[in-house]
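Section 5: illustrative case.
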């Protein structure tokens, strides 16, 4: 049994992705500090935050909603990464690797949601 949200592999992966995105965006143009850079960092960090909040909720439907929110932030982050590659902000090899990690995390979040939904 998990003692904390920090023991969840989904949270650990989400946090690792957020940390990497922070590093990758550290050298973006200064004029993006309050635009794109801030937005992609916030969406990436929101994934782990929503996983943690879902873990902390008592009611199953609340938990599920936060895991859905995490999934939404995940796909938002994927969209930002695609933009970053297209405009030349980030090397496509890096964005492809991060996208693969995000896709794996999406699957992991879906497993969590599936385990919480009532079985028919």
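Designed sequence:
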């Amino acid at each position: 049994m998990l003692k904390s949200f920090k023991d969840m592999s989904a949270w650990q992966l989400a946090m690792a992705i957020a940390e990497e995105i922070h590093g990758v965006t550290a050298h973006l143009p200064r004029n993006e500090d309050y635009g794109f850079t801030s937005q992609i960092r916030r969406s990436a960090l929101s994934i782990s935050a929503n996983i943690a909040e879902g873990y902390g909720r008592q009611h199953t439907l609340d938990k599920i909603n936060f895991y859905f929110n995490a999934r939404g932030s995940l796909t938002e982050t994927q969209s930002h990464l695609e933009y970053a590659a297209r405009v030349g902000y980030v090397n496509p090899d890096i964005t492809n690797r991060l996208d693969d990690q995000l896709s794996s995390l999406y699957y992991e979040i879906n497993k969590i949601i599936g385990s919480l939904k009532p079985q028919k």
